[in-house]
Amino acid sequence: MSIARRLALGVGALGCIVLAVTLTLWAVDVSRWNDAFAAGDVRFRVAPEDERLWRPAELAPFDAGRKLLAVQDDVDFREALRALRRADLEDPVISDPEVAIRRNEAQARLEAIVVRDTDNARRSRAAGMLGVLGLARFVYETQEREALLSATIANLTRAVALDPGNDEAKYNLELAYQRGRGLELTEASAGSNAAPGGQGSKGAGAGQPGSGY
User: Fold this and answer.
1) Which end of the chain is more exposed for a tag (fewer CB within 10 A), N or C?
2) Same domain, 124 and 193
3) What domain range is 56 assigned to?
4) For the stretch 100-112, what's the b/e string if a residue is b when 16 or more beta carbons lie within 10 angstroms of its beta carbon?
5) Does 81 share its domain with 51?
6) What distance lies between CA 166 and its chain's CA centroid?
7) Torsion-angle region of 2 (φ positive above 0: left; ψ -120 to 50: alpha; else: beta)
8) ∠ at Cα 29 (24, 30), nearest 5°?
9) Are residues 118 and 193 in the same domain?
10) Are 109 and 21 contained in the same domain?
């Protein structure tokens, strides 16, 4: 057997070994990603601040497993959920600058999903959560409340249009309209600069929005 033929056989054998190793690494990474989603979703409920959520240790280089499974959109959506969860929407007063930063982060992540994601169900949920964020801001914002409410209604309307089965978005949309009517009544009785939390904040539109997560 000539040297050239032996060299060709050696290169071919080496290529087969590399391919086998690569496929094995991909198979392991696929399994790890599936486990990471399942375990991360459970842990998210008790420790949303955990930075290791949905981040398996991949063996294949260049994030090959992540790209092969096309899971980046799923990761981005979960990261947006976590940002919203950590935004302390139940607290109407922002005394901690970190809370304001987290709310801005949540809004930016959700807006990116609405614009870029290819899955309408995820886009609908993201738009609905933007509506929830807007309703929460409506409680404590004192400036440009009409513009805020208009943007909130637009997000919730988009959520319903993207997924007519999104019942939570429908509920929050009705709540936003109620708060709009309450704002009109407040401004009519107390002037256009009435502050939230006054008499006009009771009654119509005083319900709590759905969380969206």
Assistant:
1) N
2) yes
3) 1-67
4) eebbebbbebbee
5) no
6) 15
7) beta
8) 100
9) yes
10) no
Greatest Cα-to-Cα distance within the chain, rounded to the nearest angstrom: 100
Q: What is the 3-state secondary structure (H, E, C) of 10-51?
A: HHHHHHHHHHHHHHHHHHHHHHHHHHHHHHHHHHHCCCCCCC
Q: Rounded CA gap, 207 and 213, in Å?
A: 18
- pTM for the whole thing? 0.70
What residue type is assigned to position 204 of the chain?
A
Tokens of 28: 């392991």
Q: C-alpha angle with apex 84: 66 to 130, nearest 5 degrees?
A: 100
Can you give the length of the chain in residues? Answer: 213
Look up tokens 């709310």; give the residue. 103
Residue 102 has pLDDT above 50, yes or no: yes
pLDDT digits (tens, 9 = 90+) for 146-188: 899 999 999 999 999 999 999 999 999 999 999 888 766 565 5
User: Do 61 and 99 fall into the same domain?
Assistant: no
Contact by Cβ (8 Å): 122, 79: no
